[in-house]
Amino acid sequence: MFSFYSNTNEKGATISRKTSTDEMRTRKKGRQAPHGVFWLFLAHLFCHNGMIIPCLAQVTSTPGDANESGDSTTLGSATATPTNLCRLENGLSSIIVDIEESVGDETAQTTNPKELPIIGDPWNQIDLTLVQHEKRYFRLHGKNLQLSQPLDRDEDDISSIVFQAVCVIKSTRESRTIPVIARVSDKNDNSPKFISEPYEISIPESTPVGTTVFRGIRAQDVDAGVNGLVEYFIVDSKDEKEEENGYGIFTINLPHQGAVTLNRTLDYERNQRYYVTVVASDRAFDPKLRRSSTTTLTVTVKDDDDLAPEFHHSKYNAAVTRSVLTGVLDVRPAKILATDKDSINSPIHYAFVNGTPASYLSYFLIDGQTGIVRQIRPIDNDQETRFEIYLKATEVTEARRSAYAKLEILVKALNSHPPIIQATSLVGYVDENSAVGTPVLSLADNQPIRFTVTDPDLTPNDPKPEYHYELTTSGFKVNDDGILVVADQHLDRDPPNPPQLQFQMIAREVGDQHETSSSTPLVILVHLKDSNDNSPVIIRPTQSITIPGGGEGRRPIFQVEADDKDEGDNAKLQFAITHVSNNGTKRFMVHEVTGVVDAVGKFNTGEHFSITVQATDGGGRSSQRIVEVNVIDGPNLKAPVFSQLVYDVGVSEGASIGAEVITLEARDPEGKPVIYDIVAGNELQHFTIGKNTGILSVNGQLDREDLSRYSLNIKASDDGALHSIATVNIRVIDINDRNPEFISLPYHFSVKEGQPGKLIGRVEAKDEDEDANGEIRFEIPDNSPFSVDPITGEVSTKTALDYEKQRLHYVVVTARDNSPSPRIATATMTIAIEDVPDTEPVFNRFSYEVSIPENLRATKVTRVEAMDPDTEKRITYYIKQGPFDKFNIDPITGDIYTTQGLDYERNAKHVLIIGTEENDSGNLGSTTTVIVTVIDENDVPPIFNVVPRPIRLDDTSHVGMIITKLEATDSDGTSPFNKVKYEIMGRGKAARYFDVNHDTGEVSIKDDLRKEMDTEYHIDVRAYDLGEPQLSSVATVKVNVDHVATVAPDVGVGFSETEYSVDVLESAVGGTLLKTLVIINKQDEIIPIECQIISGNEDGLFTLRVNKDRNCELKLTRTSLDHEKVPEYVVQVKLLTLPGVISKKNSQVKIKIRVVDENDNKPEFQFPDHQKIARGKKLYGAISEDSQISTSVIQIRAEDKDSGTFHEITYELEAENDLARSFFSIDSKSGIVSNTRTLDDVSPALLPFRLTVTARDNPKGPTSSSQISQIPLIVNIIGEPHRMVLIIQGTTPDKVKIKEKDILEILQDTSTLIIGIEKISAHRYLTDNGTLDLDSTATDVWFYAVDPINDHILDREHPKVTDTIMSRESSKGISYYVSSSLGVRATEVRKPITRAPLPPAPVGTLESEQQWAAFPAALVALACLIFIVSSAGICFVCYKWSRYNAYKNQMQRIVVPPRSYEPVYIDHSPSLKQYETQVLNMRVQGDELDIDDSDLQMDLNLSRNHMYMDGSTTGYNSRDSLVGSQWRSSSPSSHAGGTRPASDVSPSSSKTPILKTFQHRQLASGDKSEPSIVNPIYERWD
After folding, report:
1. 901, 885 Cβ separation under 8 angstroms
2. Which of 67, 389, 1016, 1520 is the most buried (most CB within 10 A)?
3. Superfamily of domain 754-834
4. Where is the Cadherin domain (predicted)?
5. Spatial CA neighbour of 560 closest among 630, 616, 614
6. Which of 390, 387, 384, 351 minimizes the C-alpha distance to 370?
7. Cα 1319–chain centre separation
8. What is the pLDDT of residue 931?
């Protein structure tokens, strides 16, 4: 295989081929090339395999390449001489450029090549112009083609643009026209567009899973190639409700077709609508550049008849009276009603199916259509007291599904007498606060009071009715045994509650809604017996007791008083002293009955006692209080005396704090010191008094306006607590400290214009100061048009005001007090001037005519308008005459509204007279007339003239027979609202067997009635008018069909077998036929047949249908069988047909369905419990670098949920390259991975080993029937720098081994690295003499760490290891964690001791080292020499090979006849010769192409170019694009301006045609021309 790129010189110019004689000479020399085949082959190996990267940097011509004249012309660009100006550099006759289409308004894209390959300088030597037809897409800048407008390949339908470049030589004015072909490449700039939106379908809920429900989704993409191919898929939409999201319910199995398939079963009762979000995406090569559009498919689920009816209640009750014909029974808890659970709402037929006693049919009848139960005969005997009747509700459908309920009817006696209530006693008692349920006992016999009820109407056979008792109190109730019990546990007899309760009670029959069966009331009296529920409360003394010192004997000092709310013995109190402080227990005594406390003996002044007294009642409840007793010195008989009892004094409100008010003096007759205190009147603490001096002074800021007088009670007391009181009356003297304050702000007044001296309002102010300080005078500026009375504040106008000049005045009024230093306040009055109207409003229209539809309420009719010439327009509208109850008018705007709907049929026209309150003159224009015409609407539905009566028919009645005629009338006023038509509505099967004449309403038979088993039909006939909206009413015609009895066959209809066994694969899809149940003896085609699953289908996995042979097919409803969950199903099927022809023995069949296991589960890899990092993603193993061959690295384990051979698993091992794979092997059964080679010479580039473990189940079966799982396996080699040791003292290795898992988890949690334990062994340590020894009582845990990011094993010196494991702090933390968690003594983490340290080696220089010091330099020199020589040889061989290959390619070209162009005339040529330009087309023979044309697409975008084999993608051109109108060539992609290295080329397959490009340049010094256009060549890879 050969692959070459064109060579480049140092300046990046591509070598182009020579023309004419030079080209022929090259061809001749090319024939001599085979003599160097060996060297060419060698060069190919070197170049193609990338052994020499710069395969050929520069190639010059050899002496044999010189032309015949002996000059040394080089291969390069043509020289710009007058003879070759305006010619093409590549020697061709036309130019081909490539350009990408525009995206939006983009015009900046460049052509490829960037410059036109025309010889000559466009600025100095030649002039270039473009000749374009129709749209002018391009303009020239020098030799560069630039877009002059956006170029849209899709919208303009352009694949290529052909125009001409006119080149004029400036020196000779000769011109040349050159054809230019611009090939436009497609960009993916258009999204697919859906057509025929919106998408809506309706499907039945019984649609099988896997059914294609919609094929109409279509989208178009105007892009070309794969950019225009559309795929469809369904996505999850977050905008829809979860229950309405169609994602997962529907699927698109074939993305290119867009057919929507049902993926799960539907259930109308669960959801009636789904919104399926469908995305249409194109198939651009780069997924990031793909464009898409979204649409919504609305799927409406239609209901099927799949649910049985259901009674609203499972049990009903009713009652009838003996000897009375009740008629329609009042059924409880609600009327008998069953409804179809399907939305089809099939009609329901009611019937009695059984009952007790058997005579129930003689007395009761149920309406089959309404479910109403009637009593048809009174019950006269005493034996039948209760009826139990079982009801059946059957839907009138083919399925005849039914439901059952129970009706209990109680036969009551005729209620002629009320019940009689009797009590064992009417007077009872109970303890207060008794628990709920405590019986009330009789005072007579202490037995519970019991009530009984009798009814004279009842006979011994009558059931005893239940009675409930109604009491007028909530404190008691009658329990189920008829005993009066407590109902409130908080019954209290203590005051203020009454000690006894009297109430009334009656007995009422349960279920008596009319409240007629109640007894006469009884009066009950219950006494509440006292219980000791209150403790005594000591009420006196409340203050401390003072006794004089001295004294002798026993003397009373105070009395203890207590109260107890109980009565009797519970209220008898005894007093006692329980404790006395200061050892005074024997110095005080209390009388236990009266509570008088006596002092015993002599007391000294200053003694203090705390006496704890206790009061205890007869029930043992008690309370205590502490009484303080103080002993004072001798008798103090006289209190201090004031000099006067009342003092009157004044103080200024401006007095400062501390200012003296008065000095009080009191003298004690006994000469004791006096203490002063303010005891009343000083609540605000505005004053204080010296306790010893009696000086009364100010203590707070005084304000006369807040409080003008104080009355203080001053107490003067001696040390014996004797005192006297004097009163000090203080008057606060006013100062002018308050400003006047206006009240009733703000002031807004109004006055009509032209009224001088008019009183318009009054201002008011107050001043809380006194006398002159509080007197106020008012002032207004003199220049104001208003005046104010200085005393009263009345404001008046001075002059006549003009509204038109000034409508609003703002006047400042001042309030001033009469103090010598007056204080003032101001306020602003807002005075509005009112306009005086002098012109009446008039209407400018005399009448209004309006039409309005009937029945519109609160609707605007029209607006009337009157004109008022006044400045302030005041118009108030009102209805003067007309129907006030139907219309009202807005008095401001004149809008007229309806107050109720108008009725065309009653009154088609209304007349209103509208006037204004301001003009009641009756003159012309004072009123206007509004004529309202009512438009008739379709507001009355047709009404049937009579209610249809039931009809009875034989099933043999002929088709077309008229069974009744219905008539309805419509009372609307106009046509077509009163035209009536008829139709039958869909309800059950009635529409199938009956029809109605649309015009006459005649109901006739439509089909043979013998085809159904139904005996009753309900025909819903709808009468509708022709109005819009359409109104209608429905009448139901009940038809009873009597079926002619037929003789049953000798052998009834039934299943051919009663039991089947079926095997089904667990992968079976929905709709799979499991078994056909053959039905025998089905003689008459009219006999209906249906099969029903009665058990075993709880999950709804199976369904039954009757096929065309009238046999039942059992099918799978959905793909959800799973052998691992349910291995077998047992389904019971019942045959449904006419009762008279069925074989009871063969009416049921049992099918056993065995689910056959399949290999539907993949093996699942098991991970070590301690591995938390990358769990489920990778497995990690490690092996020591010195391990022997066959050393176990790791054991792989996987489990498979399938059974049998599908559960068996084998293991395989793969690697990224064969070298890595050669180091390891895996046991296919056990999963043990072991090494096959020694690991001491592994290249670091291979580490870590990245292996892949494959687990395959079903190893004995074919590969196609196996499931595989793969998991990456990372294997590291453990070296000495990686090892770390955790030292555990005092624990042997075998015990530490048990806790290996816990140690691993601790190390991984603390380090966040992947930890592996290499071994657990006895502890190594160095002895005192430096030797290595073992301690079997301690343990070394050898471990290593792997970085979870790059999977490399880490040195213990790595920062991640030192920071988390090896540092002192980390080592201590790990040791503490291990010790505390595992109950061992871990001491440290350190590097392992592998051997005893060696003594240091002597330092010195060996003689041999000095002799070999120059050897490396000699090797480097020799290598350089070899490289230079070999490089020169290889370059020569590569050059010769390229020459040979170029000749070979030239011989393969086939010229296709050119496409002619219109002649181009050169105006500047003197001979006016005609030149014809042609296009050179390249094609490839059809038998050389091995590709599918439809899958080829050319893309010229370098970032995603599929022609420029960038090492990962190989692109192709279609045969049409190559052999069609023009070449489809493209220049090769480049690296930094040069050609791509040969090592970048990687073919995708051995038979894929590879696009190769060759460029030929003529080397010329100093030429910097751009790369020329090249031709593509296809070559097969053999």
Report:
1. no
2. 389
3. Cadherins (2.60.40.60)
4. 134-194, 195-311, 312-421, 422-538, 539-642, 643-742, 743-843, 844-944, 945-1051, 1056-1165, 1183-1295
5. 614
6. 351
7. 52
8. 94
* Residue 1381 pLDDT: 85
CATH H-level, domain 1164-1390: superfamily: Cadherins (2.60.40.60)
DSSP state of 381: -
Q: How far apart are CA 263 and CA 208, in angstroms?
A: 9
Helices 1368-1382 and 1300-1311 pack at an angle, to 10 degrees, of 140
Residue 1297 CA to residue 1290 CA, distance in Å, equals 14
Output the CA angle 145-148-149, nearest 5 degrees: 130
Whether 211 contacts 229, CB under 8 Å: no
Closest CA to 1043 of 1006, 1067, 1009, 1071: 1009
Task: Give the architecture (CATH level 2) of 641-708+715-719.
Answer: Sandwich (2.60)
- Cβ atoms within 10 A of the Cβ of 1216, count? 12
**In this predicted structure, what is the pLDDT of residue 512?**
61
CATH 2.60.40.60 fits 956-1042, yes or no: yes
Q: Which residue has the tokens 């139960």?
A: 373
Closest CA to 1434 of 33, 39, 58: 39
**420-519 is a CATH 2.60.40 domain:** yes
E-strand spans in 221-314? Answer: 230-235, 250-251, 260-262, 273-282, 292-302, 309-311
* Per-residue model confidence as pLDDT tens digits over 107-159: 888 898 988 899 998 888 898 888 887 788 888 888 898 888 888 887 777 88
Residue type, 405: A
Q: Quick one: 309-400 is in which CATH superfamily?
A: Cadherins (2.60.40.60)
In the prediction, which pLDDT does 274 show?
92
Alpha helix segments (H runs only) across 1119-1243: 1218-1221
Q: How far apart are CA 934 and CA 852, in angstroms?
A: 5
* pLDDT-flagged residues of the chain (< 70): 1-82, 511-516, 550-551, 634-636, 670-671, 837-838, 987, 1044-1051, 1083-1086, 1139-1140, 1395-1414, 1450-1582
Q: Is the peptide bond before 448 cis (omega within 30 degrees of 0)?
A: no
% helix, strand, coil for the chain, step of 5: 10, 40, 50
What is the C-alpha separation between 738 and 556, in angstroms, rounded? 63
Q: What tens digit of pLDDT does each residue of 53-101 get?
A: 333 333 333 333 333 333 333 333 445 566 788 888 888 888 999 988 8
pLDDT of residue 415: 72
CA distance 490 to 1409: 116
Say how far apart CA 636 and CA 454 lie, in whole Å.
85
Give the residue carrying structure tokens 């204004």: 916
How many other β-carbons are positioned within 10 Å of the β-carbon of residue 437?
12
Please say whether the beta carbons of 138 and 182 come within 8 A.
Answer: yes
Residue 1286, pLDDT score: 94
Q: What is the pLDDT of residue 153?
A: 82
5: tokens are 């790129």
CA pair distance 1195, 1175, nearest whole angstrom: 16
Q: 1067-1154 maps to which CATH number?
A: 2.60.40.60
Instruction: Compute the distance between CA of residue 313 and CA of residue 835 in angstroms, rounded to an integer.
Output: 77
Domain limits, the chain: 206-302, 309-400, 420-519, 551-632, 641-708+715-719, 754-834, 855-935, 956-1042, 1067-1154, 1164-1390
Contact 614, 579 (CB under 8 A): no
Q: How confident is the model at residue 1540, as a pLDDT?
A: 38
Cis amide leading into 837 (omega within 30) = no
Residues in the chain: 1582
CA 997 – CA 983 distance, rounded (Å): 7
How, if at all, do strands 175-185 and 95-100 pair?
parallel
Q: What is the pLDDT of residue 1473?
A: 37
855-935 is classed CATH 2.60.40.10: no
At the topology level, CATH places domain 551-632 in: Immunoglobulin-like (2.60.40)
CATH architecture of 206-302: Sandwich (2.60)
